[in-house]
Amino acid sequence: MLDEHYYRSAADFAREAPSRFEKYDRNGPKIFVGEWAAYEDVVPWNEKSRQLPPTPSLKAALGDAAWLTAMERNSDLIVMQCYAPMLVNVNPGARQWRPDLIGYDAWHCFGSPSYYVNAMFNANRGDVVLRASLAGLPQDKTPVLDYSVTKDSARKIIYIKVVNISAAAQPVQIDLEGVKRVVSHGTSVVLTSAKETDANSVFDPVKVVPATERIEGLAPSFNRTFPPYSITVLKIQTK
Predict the structure, then answer these.
(1) Measured on CA atoms in the order 20, 23, 29, 30, is the torsion positive or negative?
(2) 213-229, pLDDT tens digit by residue?
(3) What is the mean pLDDT of the chain?
(4) Region(s) of the chain under CATH 2.60.40.1180
(5) Do the Cβ atoms of 17 and 67 come closer than 8 Å?
(6) Of 35, 26, 123, whose CA–CA distance to 75 is shortest?
(7) Using CA atoms, how far apart are residues 29 and 102, in angstroms rounded to an integer?
(8) Phi, psi of 217 (to 5 degrees)
(9) How far apart are CA 145 and CA 85, in angstroms?
(10) C-alpha span between 145 and 176 (Å, rounded)
(11) Which of 227, 205, 232, 234 is nearest to 65 (CA)?
């Protein structure tokens, strides 16, 4: 098994996610992505503390989510993965590096948008990766959607994860080939915010957190629009 480490800008993670691991030789060693994290290539400057934020903004979370879809799609190859670093003291001068998943001081702690991305992916995953493809996009442009699809074999639940890194909503027709019937209602979990620079802090710990809602009108073929700057998990019960 190889231990690979990836620290990239959010833009680089999004750019590499569609094809990075698909190129690996399936007859070679398995992969443990022992360290990985996206950092923002453009971040808000804190004039008071005169330093960059210790925890990731939504922009980094979008890059992280794109990278997670890539690892999940290729989990025949990637058998383990671990975000790093995990914890950071957010007081000025107290940290050693960035980005960090969870921030704290003597009185508070909070999860970054990237923390919630990891939680969303962990709580909604199947034991089988389903083959999926994205069609109808211009060939001369970098895709703005990243995705992975898994199924819980025992409970017959399909999890569709879609990451929209762009500033525009993306309407998509989803076709579940080979699926005859699904329950007409399901669950959508969405992490998004008005600006990709939005982040959580000790002063506003839940500025960017997932929202869960019941959705209707599900079928083997249905339409769904994914908001700007969003990570979405659709939970669909098959029959």
Answers:
(1) positive
(2) 999 999 999 999 999 99
(3) 91
(4) 128-237
(5) yes
(6) 26
(7) 32
(8) 80, 20
(9) 26
(10) 18
(11) 232
pLDDT above 80 for 160: yes
DSSP 166: S
Distance CA 197, CA 219 (A): 35
Per-residue tokens: 199: 């982040």
State how far the Cα of 153 lies from the Cα of 129, in Å rounded to an integer: 10
Phi, psi angles (nearest 5°) of residue 121: -70, -40
Rounded Cα distance between 236 and 83, Å, is: 27
Residue 114 DSSP code? H
Sign of the four-CA dihedral 120, 126, 128, 131: negative
Closest listed residue to residue 162, CA positions, set 67, 115, 229, 232:
232
- What Å distances lie between residue 112 and 82, 106, 234, CA to CA? 16, 17, 22
Structure tokens that stand for 58 in this block? 């939504």
Contact at 8 Å (CB) between 212 and 186? no
pLDDT at position 96 is 82
Q: Which fold has domain 128-237?
A: Immunoglobulin-like (2.60.40)
Residue 48: pLDDT over 70: no
From the CB of residue 4, how many other CB atoms can be counted at a distance below 10 Å? 14
CB 159 within 8 A of CB 150: yes
**Mean pLDDT, rounded, for 27-36:** 96
**Cis bond leading into 99, ω under 30°?**
yes
Cis peptide before 171, with omega less than 30 degrees from 0?
no
